[in-house]
Automatic annotation (TrEMBL):
Gene3D superfamilies: Nucleoside diphosphate kinase-like domain (3.30.70.141). The lineage of its organism: Bacteria, Bacillati, Actinomycetota, Actinomycetes, Mycobacteriales. Keywords: Kinase, Transferase. One of its GO terms (molecular function) is kinase activity. Belongs to the NDK family. SUPFAM superfamilies: Nucleoside diphosphate kinase, NDK (SSF54919). This is Nucleoside-diphosphate kinase. The keyword Transferase applies. Residues 48-188 form the Nucleoside diphosphate kinase-like domain.
Length: 304
């Protein structure tokens, strides 16, 4: 079985270290086994489909409609749309092989973010091409770092807010796509999602319905750092604690958050996310992720 999965993985990713990591990964194995039992070729399904996660910050930003329009304009078809409840465990499963470099502050903010709302997960497909759908979508979506985003990319369109509040996520390659199917959905629900994806019917209307449900339960909020700081000032003073008058630097604002957390003060989660994403460290050390990102160039030219 291991040799068979390893052989399959060599068709799903060009990265040898990912093959080694995923050959015994429970999420990847669940989806591969499920597709096999359904009579669906995992390699073909993984190549033809990808997932696009609209995170809680995308729900707050009312970003669903611009995303749907961008997908259509860039040749991607939505063939599934699902509302998914998320928590700290889902976040850690999704980014398990990248979070070895995440700072404690980044993990804390991520745990706040998943408490803001449920998420919308889109199943996406596109015409066959030299690159798998997941690789094409990730390249077109744009990087995590807002300073590196370019016009035409989805993340540039949705707003260059901060490194953490990047609104959307998609798997790097087909191996990641199959793995994430089992993170989001149990077997029963996953079977329904796979069936709809295989049928290929347009899922845009369903995505809009879910967006309306999510918006109804999640207030729209702004991403302005100054507004977030003002709200946190008010929360702290309302709690009876003093707030320094001069909070101009990132270090001063970070200290304000650290002190409030240490004192157990109740702060507006969204304002903490906005301010914290600007002033708190997002990574530790200078080492690489456990598994580095996979690029389109690597797919076309072979391992780096």
């Amino acid at each position: 079985m291991t040799d068979t999965v390893r052989e399959l993985l060599t068709t799903l990713t060009p990265q040898a270290e990912k093959v080694d990591a995923y050959v015994a990964d429970t999420y990847l194995l669940e989806t591969v086994d499920h597709l096999d039992r359904l009579g669906i070729d995992p390699a073909k399904f993984g190549r033809q489909h990808s997932l696009l996660l609209l995170k809680p910050d995308a729900i707050v930003a009312r970003a669903v409609e611009p995303t749907l329009e961008w997908l259509a304009d860039n040749g991607f078809q939505v063939v599934g749309a699902e509302r998914v409840a998320v928590n700290r465990h889902v976040a850690r499963a999704l980014w398990y092989f990248a979070w070895n470099i995440a700072s404690p502050e980044r993990r804390r903010l991520a745990d706040l973010l998943v408490g803001i709302s449920d998420v919308l997960v889109l199943v996406v497909r596109a015409a066959d091409a030299a690159l798998p759908v997941s690789v094409r979508l990730t390249e077109a979506k744009g990087p995590t770092d807002p300073r590196k985003r370019k016009p035409g990319e989805l993340r540039h369109l949705l707003g260059r807010h901060s490194y953490l509040l990047n609104l959307v996520h998609s798997p790097d390659d087909p191996a990641d796509t199959l793995r994430e199917f089992a993170i989001y959905w149990d077997e029963s629900r996953r079977g329904e999602v796979i069936a709809r994806a295989e049928a290929g019917a347009d899922g845009t209307a369903r995505a809009r319905e879910i967006a309306a449900e999510l918006y109804a339960g999640t207030p729209a909020r702004g991403f302005d750092r100054a507004d977030a700081l003002e709200r946190i000032r008010r929360d702290i003073t309302d709690g009876g604690a003093p707030v320094p008058a001069d909070l101009e630097s990132d270090a001063d604002c970070a200290r304000l958050l650290y002190d409030a957390w240490a004192a157990g003060q109740q702060l507006d989660p969204w304002s903490v996310l906005v301010l914290g994403s600007h002033v708190l460290p997002m990574r530790i050390g200078t080492g690489p992720q456990t598994l580095r990102p996979v690029s389109a160039k690597e797919w076309l030219e072979g391992p780096l």
